Amino acid sequence: MKVKQQVETQQKKIYINNYIITKSRDEWIEGRIIKIIEVPKPSEEKPDMNIKKYIIYSLRHNIICEEEIPEHSIHRSSIENYKKFKLFPLRAYVEDIHIPVDLFEILKNDYKSVKDKKMIVLPSKFPISKILKEFSKFIVANKPSISEDEILEVVKGFTWYFDKLINPFILYECEIEQYIQYFEKEKNVNLPSNCYGPEHLLRMIFAIQKFLVKDCMDYETQDVIFEYSVYLCDFLNIFLKKYFQEKNYG
């Protein structure tokens, strides 16, 4: 019995950036832990013990939830808990684009810069291939419902999407000449995902959510692709200051 209790306690340990399932505003949602608050436990027997409360970021609403979630209401984002709490795919709640506000601002500024002929200098210090590898490690560490094999297949799929669809879905017309010249000059760079960076990855996410998801043959595939695009957005949002810097280019 003691061993079982220890195992259960270890399984309950929750850390910053772990994905969890909880109830907020009378609905079950998936979120990510962004802050852990320890407060004294109101107990005469053990006054030195603390209890934990959590601040979470809601993936469905793209906002930080206002309330502090008590520890007993936090559940790991596992396959079992998905079924237990009957969570539906995010596309059941979202009709179109689901990109956090700060990232959407980057998209708009990126478009404005290209219109003003201020194109990004290649290559990026953080090419898409590198970002996606870091994304896969992050997901494996923080989301128990996704296996390493599964996320590697997803990363492979995103990389394929980018390399095959960069022109005409991702590049603006005025960038095509730069694309051609770069690959004529840099013979050792064989794929766009090895030189283009986070801004173009963000454009791909927009294209996936806006157009490509709807072209999939079955709803289950649509749900999976859309869901992973949301996790990728969340990852980029967490590391926004790391990836989206001018000094990362050229």
Can you describe this structure?
The protein has 9 helices and 6 strands. By secondary structure, it is α+β, with helices and mostly antiparallel strands. The protein has 2 domains: 18-87, SH3 type barrels (Roll); 93-248, Enzyme I, Chain A, domain 2 (Orthogonal Bundle). The protein has helices spanning 2-12, 79-84, 101-115, 128-142, 148-170, 176-185, 198-215, 219-238, 240-243; strands at residues 19-24, 27-40, 50-58, 63-64, 69-70, 75-76. Strands 1, 2, 3, 4, 5 and 6 form a 6-stranded antiparallel β-sheet that branches. A hairpin with a 4-residue loop joins β3 (50-58) and β4. The radius of gyration is 21 Å and the shape is elongated. One of its GO terms (biological process) is chromatin organization.
Please outline the helices and strands.
Blueprint: H1 2-12, E1 19-24, E2 27-40, E3 50-58, E4 63-64, E5 69-70, E6 75-76, H2 79-84, H3 101-115, H4 128-142, H5 148-170, H6 176-185, H7 198-215, H8 219-238, H9 240-243
Antiparallel strand pairs: 1-2, 1-6, 2-3, 3-4, 3-5
Helix pairs in contact: 4-5, 4-8, 5-7, 7-8
